Amino acid sequence: MSIAAVIATALVVVATLLIVATVIALWRAPDAVTRANLMGPTTGVAAPLLIIAKVVYDAADGITPNSLIRAVLAILGLLIVASVSGFYMGRSLQETARERAEAAEAADA
User: Global pTM?
Assistant: First the structure.
């Protein structure tokens, strides 16, 4: 195994551990808003680590500017989409929770 393969394997293992930790935290989360916020380690760290692992593994054969640019754009796109979608998901879940609380108060009255 080459050094690049060992580094790529280590990055994949770290990403896998982050994903498993996120899944366990999702199972234990009390509500939907918390679950939406718990996706951060997976979308912000683990997925970019997987892309970096692919670039490192391919770099053993020689890295091309095309693959490097594609990896950078993929990571930037992932982080932008994840942050925007997390914002909108959090807002919608917060509004849903507020509406349910108001409906429960109206039913009690």
Answer: 0.81
